[in-house]
TrEMBL record:
Keywords: DNA-binding, Repressor, Transcription, Transcription regulation
InterPro entries listed in its UniProt record: BetI_C, Homeodomain-like_sf, HTH-type_TetR-like_transc_reg, HTH_TetR, Tet_transcr_reg_TetR-rel_C_sf
Protein name: HTH tetR-type domain-containing protein
Protein's organism: Amycolatopsis coloradensis
Residues annotated to bind DNA: 37-56
């Protein structure tokens, strides 16, 4: 008697969603966002187009989810140091080092961010979703800054929500400059600027 085959298990919804996101990231990196279709992503993932649509509304939803995951992971790793290190200046230095490390290793992701920014500036429908996700990201960073300052009874030199905008802009701007000329962005630059922004100065 032939041995019975174990029953085939279907991937969970979470596993399918992860496969789609990983496939989309790979195809976007190779072909760019504008040059990628949902069929391309489904083929890369080894899934049907219907499986992609069952997890995401479309290409824009995929792009925004990938961006949000990436930035939340990076910023989460950076802001976690304020729970790990009590000294504000030391924690700020480590946060800057983690963010700069991300800039150095995520060139592909920053190219995708710039491409999608360009698409959003030309298409109001794309712009609305992009703006909403960026607002949520700024709110998360604002909360982390307020928590770090409050735990140390520190008065910030600027409102936390403005510091969040500056930190995001600094991260993106340094990524562009480092991509063009790595030597123009010293290893300590992010840390030095964060210290100026966050570390309180004597009156």
């Amino acid at each position: 008697m032939a041995a019975s085959r174990p029953p085939r298990t279907r991937p969970s919804r979470a596993e399918t969603r992860r496969r789609v996101l990983d496939a989309a990231t790979a195809v976007f990196a190779r072909q760019g966002i504008a040059g990628t279709s949902l069929n391309d992503i489904a083929a890369e993932a080894g899934l049907t187009k219907g499986a992609v649509y069952s997890n995401f509304d479309g290409r824009d939803d995929l792009v925004l989810t990938i961006m949000e995951e990436h930035v939340v992971d990076r910023m989460g790793a950076a802001t976690a140091v304020f729970d790990e290190i009590a000294d504000l200046e030391e924690a700020t230095a480590e946060a800057g080092a983690r963010l700069l490390s991300g800039i150095g290793t995520d060139a592909t992701w920053h190219r995708l961010l710039l491409e999608y920014w360009g698409l959003a500036m030309r298409d109001p429908a794309i712009h609305a979703g992009f703006a909403e996700r960026r607002a949520r990201l700024r709110e998360a960073i604002t909360r982390a800054i307020r928590k770090a300052a409050g735990a140390r009874s520190v008065e910030l030199p600027l409102p936390a929500e403005q510091l969040a905008v500056v930190i995001l802009a600094l991260s993106n701007g340094l990524a562009v400059e480092r991509g063009v000329d790595a030597d123009a962005v010293p290893e300590t630059l992010f840390t030095d600027v964060l210290r100026l922004l966050i570390t309180p100065r004597p009156a």
